[in-house]
Design goal:
globular, five-stranded parallel beta sheet, single chain, alpha/beta, 6 helices, two-stranded antiparallel ribbon
């Protein structure tokens, strides 16, 4: 486990919005995390398989494969995966995606818009094994 100690904690951000990925990259890299990016759910699952990041932040509303399906696939690959669900207007039609994701076992919920402090606090909590909001 010694090698792991000097490896940066890696976080995979899956969001179809480039600006959101760039913003999270800035926030997280400035705090010393290594960042991986995926622009959709399929890419996120593939990257998780190859790289086994310490944490995944997944946008719930994405084209191709939405966040809920992505979430379930990641959980299928690794039951202990640490996953934060993220969404803007979480109420898409009648479904409140964030509470749905919470029910299926997200480790934390990040609502957009977010700020640096809220992102880092939640990421720190989840990595430490605590449940986020």
């Amino acid at each position: 486990n010694r090698m792991r100690a000097n490896r940066l904690t890696s976080i995979l951000v899956a969001d179809d919005d480039k600006l959101v990925r760039m913003t999270l990259r800035k926030i997280l890299e400035s705090a010393g995390y290594a960042l991986l990016e995926a622009k959709d759910g399929g890419e996120a699952v593939e990257m998780y398989r190859k790289r086994k990041p310490d944490l995944v932040i997944v946008d719930i509303v994405m084209p191709v494969k939405d966040g809920v399906r992505t979430f379930l696939e990641l959980r299928g690959l690794d039951g202990k995966a640490k996953i934060i669900a993220m969404s803007a207007g979480a109420r898409n039609g009648k479904i409140d995606y964030l509470s749905l994701t919470k029910r299926i076992g997200a480790n934390g919920i990040l609502a957009k818009p977010f700020n640096r402090a809220s992102v880092l606090a939640l990421v720190g909590q989840v990595l430490a094994g605590e449940k986020g909001p």
